[in-house]
Amino acid sequence: MMDPCENGGTFFSGNRTCHCAHGFVGDYCQRRYRDCLESPQANTHYYLQPLGSDHVFEWHCEPAAVNYTLVAPFIQTYNLNFTLSWQQFKQGIARFAGFYFMGLENLHQLTKQGVYDLFVYLFKTGRPYGSLSYRNFKVDSESEGYALRWDHLDKEFNGYFTGSDDFLDGFGGVGDAAKNLNGARFGTFDNDIAGCARAKNAGWWYNPVGCNMITFDPNGLYWPTNLTGVVQLDYINITMMVMKPVHWYKEDDLVL
Length: 256
Known about the structure:
The chain is mainly beta. It folds into two domains: about 5-65, no CATH class; about 70-250, Gamma Fibrinogen, chain A, domain 1 (Gamma Fibrinogen, Chain A, domain 1), CATH 3.90.215.10. About 10% of the residues lie in helices and about 35% in strands. The protein has three helices and 21 strands. It has helices at about 85-90, 105-110, 195-200; strands spanning about 10, 15-20, 25, 30, 45-50, 55-60, 70-75, 95, 100, 115-125, 130-140, 150, 150-155, 155, 160, 185, 205, 215, 220-225, 230-235, 240-250. The two termini are about 30 Å apart.
């Protein structure tokens, strides 16, 4: 019998199955993983190829206990320069000094293949952690400025609230329409949105009317909170932005 296994897979004639080489999956090892959640979750790097896309990229998938794909963490950062170029943010920022970023094109390709939620977890010393979820999160194409979109903010998880109400809707501008990032395009110093990236010294999504509320400096990320009854920006020790798939389109043997 001919060996049907592709991409370096090993054929076992006894049970007529393929044992796939690292990074490939399918009955015949015919394709790459389409998301970290489909990988063995071995706390290592994989090449991912979203459904229906020719785009292949390398990303660090988290350990087996984690059920998300990491987008960007900000972890006790100091002396960082967030004024990176459009091309750098497009391709992704490798791990360094507590900050890295998946990459705009990678986010677009992933969120195009199914329905995702974006979760933002915020940890501030001496406070209960905060958690926000942006439902049906998507990133548009480069021609559309990698605009950020979601359906609604939700703080309810499995029927009960988890996390502190101190942490407000940073992407939604805490109700300020001029600073709402829903539909906002990404801006960098060399591809700016109404001067916002230069004013903020950071590449990020910007509303051309009011830039945004989130602030970056060499120490890291400042997020809107309501600790004193008045909205203020507070330094957050650890911020984790992650995506979880809600629904995947099914094709060949992909069923999650």
